[in-house]
Design a protein that fits this description.
This protein has about 280 residues and is an alpha/beta fold. Helices cover about 20% and strands about 20% of the residues. The protein contains 7 helices and 9 strands. The longest helix has 9 residues. The protein starts with 18 loop residues before the first strand and ends in a 13-residue tail after the last strand. This is UDP-arabinopyranose mutase 3.
Amino acid sequence: MAAAATTTRPAVPLLKDELDIVIPTIRNLDFLEQWRPFFQAYHLIIVQDGDPSKTIKVPEGFDYELYNRNDINRILGPKASCISFKDSACRCFGYMVSKKKYVYTIDDDCFVAKDPSGKEINALEQHIRNLLSPSTPFFFNTLYDPYRDGADFVRGYPFSLREGVPTAVSHGLWLNIPDYDAPTQLVKPLERNTRFVDAIMTIPKGTLFPMCGMNLGFNRELIGPAMYFGLMGDGQPIGRYDDMWAGWCSKVSPAFFITIFCDLKYIIPPKPVVAVDI
């Protein structure tokens, strides 16, 4: 007698109704096709930068809302100047209009990376798992993330600190173009990051770091306005500091994860360096 067939129902994506994906853009979002298996279940908030009369095309099947500069001016009125223009820091408007507890933001030229075995990496899922796990900012664990399968706290780690603290930010890295400052890019124009590192660690309390907004998840309730990206773009004298500013401010939060692997960012050929770093 044949065994009865069983139907496997797909698992509900983590935080499906508690997370928004914020994407700043100046172009059609064709890159979403590659992210469709990972992003389609979530709500997208798209912040269009530049010319508001330009039509941005979004692939079918995604649940999204789209705002351009006209919308920002209408909603914020005289306070609209607090949102950067002609720069990806405009994503802050998406953080503001989101009503979800969690936000994941990604640039519109990032593509799915693969681990050494060739398997595609679901960067969003890893960010979510980071945000749902405690951080350990007060004492460094030499096995990095002690809550990960196959790891634990090492000998000598205080038992009183093993519960950790809530995670506020999950910061992802990427392959290909390194996040160098302008002088370093000029000296090393052909350098690429090809080293895949599978590790998760907490930035220690009292330690600053240069945050990048290209591949980032955070808890809005813990971070709040500290995740405001400094003004950049049109009319601003200094560039390439907006996300770093938010990273420095976010250190007032309890602690957060650094996710060492995430997305693969393609910028080919590299953009010429015209910004002034601080």
